[in-house]
Design brief:
Blueprint lengths: L2 H14 L10 H7 L7 H29 L6 H25 L4 H27 L6 H15 L3 H14 L14 E2 H5 L3 H11 L1 H14 L8 H4 L1 H25 L1 H27 L14 H7 L2 E4 L2 H6 L6 H6 L8 H6 L9 E4 H7 L4 E3 L4 E3 L10
Parallel strand pairs: 1-4, 2-3
Antiparallel strand pairs: 4-5
Helix pairs in contact: 1-3, 3-14, 4-5, 5-6, 5-7, 5-13, 10-13, 12-13
Length: about 400
């Protein structure tokens, strides 16, 4: 349940006398600045009752707001306006990049940055289509989602099912492994062999996960129906049909202007967009005071409120990322299109009591966290482990 997380928040509010949640200090800060406070039996009992009440309140609030947010559905005019104002400059910039790739490649690479931002925004539109929230029509969502999948190199049907599984299980320790960032508990990590520990450390390293892993995943791995996708005919069909579409969509301009100009233009855009997308997705659920529970104690609304962050970005970055930083709102009600998430947040100031607010600067520290400590109820760093478990 939410009890442990709420316990920590109650203690923080009492100690800091602040009206709303602030990000928890790092594990090292806790270790070196102060020891856990000692409470008498009466104090502990009072705190337990308070945390239980707050946990129940959080779950009830989540249920109430989820119903309230359903009124913020798709608006055809706004959806079309967002699509046009994103896709048009995206295509225009690609054309300019191709034109400058011969002789002014430095300008091509410079333009790749805003173009990648627009591609991220297009991915968010595809993401909304997968949730059935961008249009009221299911067919329209699936058609647009499949078309955008060609630009994002993402097999829409296969991704859609995997992402639905992510929403149905985020923060559930017994249902990890699909559509999420692989996260081990401290006990699981300590039980690994030295070689597997090294493999997990490499996987959680941001240079491996972001700089290498994200582009490889989008460009290479999503072309291959492996594992569960190989055994699922719908997944195979989604992946292979996209591969055929990619051959056509990118093959024709390659025949017209050459292979090098096309690759030199689109690969930098795709790589930068993959970096940005991976960073966003990681920070949405990987922070110190996160939510992880066994299946018997897992609660959908509790996971949405306590296991999904509010990644507070500068307004221009929030625009390029399609408001996806308001991830707690999105997980409460995924049928809200991205352009109405801010309106939902503005109408629910009570969310501030439970919001896991993370700034751009805070997000840098999230990358040091790698293991869920079931005893301390925190995501911790490798260096926080006892020497015999490191």
């Amino acid at each position: 349940m939410l009890r442990a997380a709420c316990e920590r928040r109650c203690a923080k509010r009492k100690q800091m006398d602040m009206p709303q949640y602030r990000p928890a200090p790092s594990a090292s800060a806790v270790d070196h600045v102060c020891d856990p406070p000692q409470h008498g039996a009466s104090d502990r009992g009072s705190q337990d009752r308070q945390s239980q009440a707050l946990a129940s309140e959080a779950e009830l609030l989540g249920q109430t707001l989820a119903r309230q947010f359903r009124a913020y559905g798709a608006d055809l005019k706004r959806s079309l306006f967002q699509l046009i104002t994103t896709a048009t400059p995206f295509v225009a910039l690609l054309i300019i990049m191709v034109a400058t790739s011969d002789g002014y490649y430095w300008l091509t690479l410079l333009l790749a940055i805003p173009t990648a931002g627009l591609l991220v925004r297009l991915f968010i539109i595809q993401h909304d289509c997968g949730h059935g929230s961008f249009f009221k029509s299911r067919v329209a969502n699936d058609v647009l989602g499949s078309v955008l999948g060609v630009l994002t190199l993402t097999p829409y049907g296969h991704w859609k099912r995997g992402h639905a599984a992510h929403h149905a299980s985020t923060g559930n320790l017994d249902r990890r492994g699909r559509g999420d960032v692989a996260t081990l508990t401290v006990a699981e990590y300590q039980a690994l062999s030295p070689l597997k520990k090294l493999g997990y450390r490499l996987y959680r390293n941001p240079f491996v996960m972001v700089l290498l892993g994200a582009p490889i995943n989008f460009i290479v791995l999503q072309r291959l129906p492996t594992g569960q996708a190989f055994r699922d005919p719908d997944a195979r069909r989604s992946i292979l049909s996209l591969n055929v579409a990619l051959v056509v969509v990118f093959g024709l301009p390659m025949l017209a202007i050459g292979i090098v100009p096309v690759l030199a233009t689109y690969l930098p855009v795709m790589i930068i967009a993959a970096w940005i997308g991976n960073w966003l997705f990681y920070v949405q659920h990987q922070f110190e005071d996160a939510y992880w529970e066994q299946d018997r104690d897992w609660n959908f609304h509790g996971a949405a409120l306590s296991g999904s962050s509010y990644f507070k970005l500068p307004i221009i970055l929030q625009w390029f990322s399609g408001n996806i930083g308001l991830h707690h709102v999105h997980h409460l009600c995924s049928r809200v299109p991205n352009y109405r998430l801010q309106a939902c947040l503005d109408t629910a100031p009570e969310l501030n009591r439970f919001t896991q607010r993370i700034s751009l600067r805070d997000s840098l520290g999230c990358w040091r966290l790698a293991l869920w400590d079931e005893q301390r109820r925190l995501l911790v760093r490798f260096r926080d482990l006892k020497p015999q478990g490191a």
